[in-house]
Automatic annotation (TrEMBL):
Pfam families tied to this protein: L6_membrane
Name of this chain's protein: Transmembrane 4 L6 family member 1
InterPro entries for this protein: L6_membrane
GO CC aspect terms: membrane
Higher taxonomy: Eukaryota, Metazoa, Chordata, Craniata, Vertebrata
Length: 188
């Protein structure tokens, strides 16, 4: 496979991953499908950092567009285009790592929820992990099923941003080969 075809494959794979990241981050703003929690400021702090929207979404979507265009220039593209794809892919790696970091912290700290009459993060700074002990989830009385909601969406962000980082790193290596080897890189 030549570097241009590899670029196109990577770009096409990055598009749905970026879209999933954007959707997950937007959905996290509306626990229980209700806007009142966002309006009242009762959403998990890590959601406000918009790791999925900005990092795993926009900062990965822009390189995906450029990488796709570079790959369309024919097998191996031009050396300058492949060199620039390295820089764009590095931006994608940075965005994916930002999304991964925010999602991991969101999973670690747990959701913001109502515990009896007070809003707080009951699982933050505790000895046991709420992720493996679902018997503690009852502490969150509002929004309904917020623990499962946060775990599902933040875990999805962790997986998608990890894949994005790997793909963008592969594109950095692919771009390097395309830049250094030019047209005599493996064709086929």
């Amino acid at each position: 496979m030549c570097t241009g075809k590899c670029s196109r494959c990577i770009a096409v794979t990055l598009y749905p991953l970026a879209l999933i990241s954007i959707i997950c981050n937007i959905v996290l703003f509306f626990p229980d499908g209700d806007i009142k929690y966002a309006q009242d400021g009762h959403i998990t702090e890590e959601v406000k950092y918009m790791g999925g929207l900005v990092g795993g979404g926009l900062l990965v979507l822009l390189p995906a567009l450029y990488i796709n265009l570079t790959g369309k220039q024919g097998c191996c593209g031009n050396r300058c285009g492949m060199f620039l794809s390295i820089a764009f892919a590095a931006v994608g790696v940075a965005g994916a790592l930002y999304s991964l970091s925010v999602a991991a912290v969101g999973l670690q700290n747990g959701p913001l929820c109502k515990v009896v009459l007070i809003w707080g993060t009951p699982f933050k700074n505790t000895d046991s992990s709420y992720l493996t002990d679902d018997s503690t989830w009852w502490q969150c009385t509002e929004p309904k099923n917020i623990v499962q909601f946060n775990i599902g969406l933040f875990a999805t962000l962790v997986v998608t941003s990890s894949l994005e980082a790997i793909l963008c790193a592969i594109q950095m290596i692919n771009g390097l080969f395309g830049c250094l080897c030019g047209a005599w890189w493996i064709k086929g």
